[in-house]
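Q: I have 201 residues here and want to know how they pack in 3D. Can you give me a structure?
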Amino acid sequence: MPLIEKSINVNRRSFLLQAGAVSLSTGILATHASAAQDVSATDRERMRSVAAFTAQTLSTDHPMAFGALIVSSATGERLMRAVNRVGPDHDPSAHAETLTIRLACAKLGSASLKGYTLYTTCEPCAMCMACALWSGLDRLVFGATIADAGQFVSQITIPAKEVARRTDMHCVVAGPVERELCMKLFTDPRMQKAFAIWKKQ
C-alpha cells in the first residue's frame, strides 16, 4: 500500500460534522447547482470521502487542502487516492490530481484512465485539467472552485470547463460539489498557517 494511503489518527466524524454545519446555511443554493449539473448523491458521498481523507493531513507536518480520488465509473471501486505532495517531494507538478493520475496509471500499467472518474477537493488548475484530459478520464468532479483556492494560494485561474472546451478530448467536468465542505480544508487554521509559510518561500 503506498505511503500516501497510510491512515492518520484524526477525528474524521468531527470534520464532517463541523463542515456540515457550514453547508446547511447554503444548502438550497448547493442543491440547485448540483441538480443543474447532473451531480448524484453518490458524487456528493465520494466528495465527502475524499475531503475527509485529505483532512487527515491537517494534523501532520504537511497539511494539505488538495486531495484527489479515482474510482471506476462503472462500479465505484477505488483505484487510487492521494494528496498534494509539491512540498514534501520538491516537485512543482505533484498536485493532488496529477499525482493520483500517475499512481493510478502505474497501478494499471497503462497511460489510459478511460472508464474512471476523478474526484478532487478543488477545481483543477490548467496543468491538472490537461493531465486529466490526456489520461482519458470519463469525468472529473470538483469541490471548491479555483477562485476559492485563489483567495489563499497562487493559482492559474482558468476554469477547468474552459480547458476542457478547448480540446477534442472528451471529459465531463462537474462542480462545485460539496463546496462548503471542501472550503473547510482551506480555512482550517492549520492550513492557513501552512499557506502563510508557502507565501514566504
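Q: Anything worth noting?
A: The longest helix spans residues 41-55. The radius of gyration is 16 Å.
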